[in-house]
Structures are given as C-alpha cells and as structure tokens.
Amino acid sequence: MEEIDASGGKVRVRDLRSGHSGWEQYDQLLLATGAVPVCPDVPGADAVEICGVNTLQSGIELRRLLDDGNPRNGVVVGGGYIGLEMAEALVRRGMAVSLVNRSPEVMDTLDEDMGHLVSQALRDFGATLYLGETLIGFEIKGGKISGVVTDKRRLPADIVILGLGVRPHTELAVAAGIPLGEKGAIRVNERMQTGIDGIWAAGDCAESFNLVSHRPIYLALGTVANRQGRVAGINLGGGYATFPGVVGTAITKICEVEVARTGLQEKELRKLGIEWASAVIKSRTKAGYFPGAGEITVKVLAERGSGRLLGGQIVGMEGSAKRIDTLATALYAGFTVEEMINLDLGYAPPFSPVWDPVVTAARKAAKLV
C-alpha cells in the first residue's frame, strides 16, 4: 500500500511482482503497519555492518553477515530487550562484545536498582558494558565499519547491532490526515477506531491505554498487538469488542537471568506526581531446602495512603519471571497490596516457599504505605 485517500475511501497499492500501481476501493480499512527500528542520525549510520533487528528477514541478514564475515568485535548500541538478547547471542558465538547504553543501567523499563542486577548478569556472562555513554558516530574504513564513537571513547567494531527501540510506522497515516497520539502512534478508541470513519488501527503502529496511570501509552509488544488485532477483527467483521487497555507487562531472559516487569516505574510515578512506597525483597524460587532453588528479587510499588498496587519488577533465576503474572492480574483487578497478602496461591516445595516471593514483597509494601 502506497497511499490512502480517506475522503474517497480508496488506497493505492502496488503489485510487488509487476510493479504496477492502482487504486482499490475499501469499505473498512485496517492499518497494521507495525513499527520500525530507531536509527541514530549520526555519521556512518548507513554502513552495511550496522544492523537493526525487528523482522525475521533482518535476523536472517544479520546471521548471514556473522557467518560470512566472521567478525571478532561486536558492539551493541542500546540496552533494551533486543540489545541485551543480541549481546548475549554474540558472546555465545565467542565474540568480544561491548554494549553502549545512555542510561546508568540497562533495561530502562526497570528501575535502576533492578536494572543493575541485569547489568551485572551480562557482565558476568562476558560482555563489557559502557553505561551512561552517548553514541556520537561510527568510523568507516574502506567502506566498512571499524569503530563506534561515544562521548567518552572509541570502541573497535566489525559489526554493530542497534537496540535503540522502535517507533510507530505511521507515514501513510500522517499523509492521510489520520490523527496521531502518544509518541506518534495512531490514536484509537477502545474499539480500535481512528479519528477517521472507516479506518481502524492495531498493533505496533497504534497507541494503547494504561490502566494504572489512566493515560494513553505506546507499547510495542506482540502480546498487545495480538489482543488489539483480535478486537479490531471482531469489529471489522460486524461484531462488537473493546480493548480496555494494558498494564505494561513484559518478560524476557538474559543469559541465565529471568527478567519481568509490569505497571509503572518510579520515574513514571514521579512524573505523574504520585507518592509511592517501594518494597524490595530477596527470596528463593523454591523452598530453600529444595534442590535447585535459585535467587529471586521482587520489587513492588504501592501508592501511599491507599495502598493501591502500582507496579512490580522481578529479576531472578529459573522459575522467577512468570510470577509477574500474579502482579499483572492484581494490577488489572485494582488490588491493594493488603488484598494481595490473602491471595490463595499454590504451594509445594518444588515450586515456591510457603510465602510466595510476590506475596512477601506485597506484605513488606503494605507496612510502608
């Protein structure tokens, strides 16, 4: 699709095999154009060996560069989910890996104290981290990447992977006059309708609604995209469905460490002017005496006065991260941390201590609010 004529109810499309373009009428139009990687506007950024990874094809092309070029020095720019997973993958290939991140710790979706745990896990695995540094540019020699320049140093590089996040792919929407919302994503209502009749949007190009902050949010996650797509499909098919919003739940695994988060972070609460209490506990993934019990750190944020659960973060060994679902469900239901204490969670020594770490964190938070 090359152009949208919203007033005429038609789109211009191009046949990829023949190259022929033409206009097609529509009754209802769904925009699911996704997102594109953020590419820094710095010298040398167009070099072939500088890769973004956001599609299957981009992953295939990166694998080809690694296999054909056999690079020794890899630099990852950005400490988000993709950046950390790519850093781990390069270390596993036996490369010397450096990661550059502008923030003091990796994974900006965590508070700094929890992000520090992930940073250390990556260091322990063999990557070198340069935190609190800003990308200035890339050095190119003989038409190939040779180095990454930050505001503090030069790092040798045979290949660079960008992990700077994504932005909504909305050029067609902008040209058609479709209103945008949070972070340039397409503004939609609870039925996934845009500001123009007959045009809908879903997925990484569309905004969502945060059920904790009660404000619009842009969240490019496959889980969100799938749920939005279901709602849009039902409505396009003549049914009626709504997408109430999200609490911002995400989960990943970096090296041997599982990482999860949901709800709001401290920096978001500060921006919103919400007063909160923070509780951090360290526990075990299983009963302490049971073989294979690993460390787990849980952080819970609750509103002062009301005790309303505001968010939670988990970093730990195997068996840690999926506990975030308990916190996500409690957020969706609007629980207080006091109400969480009485949740009837399952217990057996191979799975949890008698007091699940999430509940233990809620108990501590309840004493602080």
List the helices and strands and how they pair.
Layout (H helix, E strand, L loop, with lengths): L2 E3 L4 E5 L6 E5 L3 E3 L3 E3 L12 E3 L3 H14 L3 E5 L3 H12 L3 E6 L10 H14 L2 E4 L3 E7 L2 E7 L3 E3 L2 E4 L3 E3 L2 H5 L23 E3 L6 E3 L4 E3 L4 H15 L13 E5 L2 E7 L2 H7 L3 E9 L10 E9 L5 E8 L7 H10 L3 H5 L15 H12 L1
Parallel strand pairs: 4-15, 6-13, 7-8, 7-13, 8-9
Antiparallel strand pairs: 1-2, 2-3, 5-14, 10-11, 11-12, 16-17, 18-19, 19-22, 20-21, 21-22
Short précis:
The protein is of the alpha/beta class. It has nine helices and 22 strands. It is globular.
Describe this structure in words.
It is a single chain. With 369 residues, this protein is an alpha/beta fold. It has three domains: 3-31 and 170-236, FAD/NAD(P)-binding domain, CATH 3.50.50; 37-166, FAD/NAD(P)-binding domain (3-Layer(bba) Sandwich); 251-368, FAD/NAD(P)-binding domain (3-Layer(bba) Sandwich). The chain has nine helices and 22 strands. It has helices at 56-69, 81-92, 112-125, 171-175, 222-236, 266-272, 324-333, 337-341, 357-368, and strands at residues 3-5, 10-14, 21-25, 29-31, 35-37, 50-52, 73-77, 96-101, 128-131, 135-141, 144-150, 154-156, 159-162, 166-168, 199-201, 208-210, 215-217, 250-254, 257-263, 276-284, 295-303, 309-316. The strands form seven sheets. Strands 6-13-7-8-9 form a five-stranded parallel beta sheet, with helices on one face. Strands 18-19-22-21-20 form a five-stranded antiparallel beta sheet, sandwiched between helices. It is globular, with a radius of gyration of 23 Å.
